[in-house]
Amino acid sequence: MKTLLHICCAPCSIACIDTLRQEGIEPVGFWYNPNIHPFTEYKMRKNTLVEYAKSIDLKLEIENEYGLRRFIEGVYPNFDNRCTFCYTLRFEETARYAAEHGFDQFTSTLFVSPYQNHALMREAAERAAEKYGVQYLHRDFSPRFREGQDRARELGLYMQKYCGCIFSEEDRYKKKPKKKKPEVDALQTAEKLV
Ligand code: SF4
């Protein structure tokens, strides 16, 4: 079966490609992640994947669209439901590409991440498959997530620090309030007592 593998980034692709190859499936990689922000991060993730694909002899197709405006328009005003739009955007383009280029089925490296909503992703992938008349190959790659990330570190691949969109980049900083140093707290407490 000719299989198109949507790839969100090189580190996440490691365990997925390995799993598929162990099953006897040789996937073709597909880069389409137009909402990664900022553009420098988009380029860094894409370039890392291009180099990694060469190193493991993986055929890679690239959709070079950068779509910040389209993404923002798509998620406005329900920013908290953005992931549904994001999954649909990426899987529909993957399914369309697969159908137009003679692939039988597609899947995605997003299914390796324990941080993604797998139920929502699966629904979006199945809808996209039906819309374009290709099969969606369901695989939960997440049991091998840590193994893949460890391997990426060993290989010295660029490791991103957030999911990808502008909102997840904001969350990266919002979720980590700076802690006061214990000695400062102690000093302030002592001052209050004086
Ligand atoms: S948090 Fe991740 S999955 Fe959700 S919209 Fe942003 S990039 Fe997409």
TrEMBL record:
Molecular function terms from GO: 4 iron, 4 sulfur cluster binding; epoxyqueuosine reductase activity; metal ion binding
EC number(s) from the headed UniProt entry = 1.17.99.6
* Disulfide bridge map: 163-165
The pathway is: tRNA modification; tRNA-queuosine biosynthesis
User: Has the keyword Metal-binding been applied to this entry?
Assistant: yes
Coiled-coil intervals? none
Q: Mind telling me what this protein is named?
A: Epoxyqueuosine reductase QueH
